[in-house]
């Protein structure tokens, strides 16, 4: 399957499939899940790890680490999902600022990554990361 044939709904469903929250004391692991599709058409997934001391990481970081482990670096499309405990409603989450910068730094071409923001809504990473270009010298 090529990346152009992966719909937002398919990617959202793939992320939802790896969403399995686990409570450990007052922390909740795996309550956000990410699936990304590489330029080569491969999929990688990951979940967040919330720790009390700040050593945890976002779901995007876990999925990107799996991708890099497989020697791929170019992300064509990415989505993150979260399910609200109170009513089970599924939400698509935009990447936080740290994840936006992380995606960009893995490969410069990732500035063109399609970030899924909903069933019928996406944006490029460039649109979500303003002023991402390296500054020009003043003189």
CATH class: Alpha Beta
Structural domain count: 1
CATH architecture annotation name: 3-Layer(aba) Sandwich
Proportion in helices? 25-40%
- The whole-number mean of residue pLDDT values reads 92
Structural class call reads alpha+beta
Radius of gyration, in angstroms, nearest whole number: 15 Å
| CATH topology call | Cytidine Deaminase, domain 2
Question: Which homologous superfamily in CATH is the superfamily?
Answer: Cytidine Deaminase, domain 2
Gross morphology is: globular
Counted by DSSP, the helix tally is: 4
Pick out the low-confidence regions.
none
Distance between the termini: 48 Å
The major sheet is characterized as: 6 strands, mixed
Q: Spell out the helices and strands N to C.
A: HEEEEHEEHEEH
Content of β-strand: 25-35%
Beta-strand segment tally: 8
Overview in brief:
The chain is α+β, with helices and mostly antiparallel strands and 139 residues long.
How does this model look, in words?
This protein starts with 7 loop residues before the first helix and ends in an 11-residue tail after the last helix. The chain is of the alpha+beta class. The protein has four helices and eight strands; from the N terminus they run H-E-E-E-E-H-E-E-H-E-E-H. It is globular, with a radius of gyration of 15 Å. It has a single domain (3-128), classed as Cytidine Deaminase, domain 2. Residues 22-108 form the CMP/dCMP-type deaminase domain. Keywords: Hydrolase, Metal-binding, Zinc. InterPro entries: APOBEC/CMP_deaminase_Zn-bd (IPR016192), CMP_dCMP_dom (IPR002125), Cyt/Deoxycyt_deaminase (IPR050202), Cytidine_deaminase-like (IPR016193). This is Cytidine deaminase.
């Amino acid at each position: 399957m090529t990346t152009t044939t992966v719909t937002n709904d398919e990617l959202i469903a793939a992320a939802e499939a790896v969403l399995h929250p686990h409570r450990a004391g007052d922390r909740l692991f795996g309550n956000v899940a990410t699936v990304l599709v590489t330029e080569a058409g491969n999929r990688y997934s990951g979940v967040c790890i919330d720790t009390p001391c700040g050593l945890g990481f976002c779901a995007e970081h876990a999925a990107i680490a799996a991708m890099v482990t497989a020697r791929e670096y170019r992300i064509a499309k990415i989505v993150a999902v979260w399910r609200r405990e109170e009513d089970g409603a599924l939400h698509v989450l935009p990447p936080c600022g740290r994840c936006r910068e992380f995606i960009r730094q893995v490969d410069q071409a990732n500035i063109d990554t399609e970030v899924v923001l909903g069933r019928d809504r996406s944006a490029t990473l460039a649109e979500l990361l303003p002023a991402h270009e390296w500054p020009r010298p003043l003189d």
